[in-house]
Amino acid sequence: MKNYLILVLFCAVSILFIPLAMVDRTPSTETDITVKETTTITTTQKTLKKEDTIDVFRTTDNKTENITMFEYVCGSVAAEMPLAYHEEAIKAQAVACYTNALRQKAGAKNEKSHISDDTTVHQGYIDKAQRKEKWGEDFDKYEKKLEKAVKEVENKALYYDESLCVAAFCAISNGKTEAAKSLWGTHIPYLVSTESEGDTLSPRY
Hints:
The structure is a single chain. The longest helix has 20 residues, at 87-106. The protein is of the alpha+beta class. Helix 1 (2-14) crosses helix 3 (87-106), helix 2 packs across helix 3 (87-106) and helix 2 (69-80) crosses helix 5 (139-152). A hairpin with a 2-residue loop joins strand 7 (156-160) and strand 8. It is 35% helix and 16% strand. It starts with a helix and ends in a 21-residue tail after the last helix. The strands form 3 sheets. It has a 3-stranded antiparallel sheet with strand order 1-7-8. Strands 5-4-6 form a 3-stranded mixed sheet. It has a two-stranded antiparallel sheet with strand order 2-3. It is globular and about 40 Å long.
């Protein structure tokens, strides 16, 4: 199960379209992505003890909310992925969302918030009321499935060379992913162009 999760996560971070914050240094070693529980967050800027909350700027209300990390990951996954997907895909998305949240929190320059729910800036987030509206009569089923998946990978994040990864993702590619250097001008060893032929089978292709 662990190896399967790592494989799914590697695929997720290899697909590039959402421009999250860039890494602060470029690792030079061969690709070695691992999943591990966080006890401390190591970045080039500072080291933080694991925190249970994150300050999220809500664009609709134009205000910042302090949210538990568990709820944030649930809401972020719900905003980014259909809950009809396989539970292992949901787990992979949860790890990616958590990793991005930790990176944003560690490197936050905005004193009022760590991350925004604006998908053009960071990753999405919808609260429980929004999830109820989105899922309608399927809310109870999907909320239970979501919380179970997030709980099973709680506090697990993606690292490369002891630093938090840029866990970039998208819904679908054109059959081949883009390299980080092509999009952002910076080479990231684990975010290189790769064939993604399975995407061509999707009805959304």
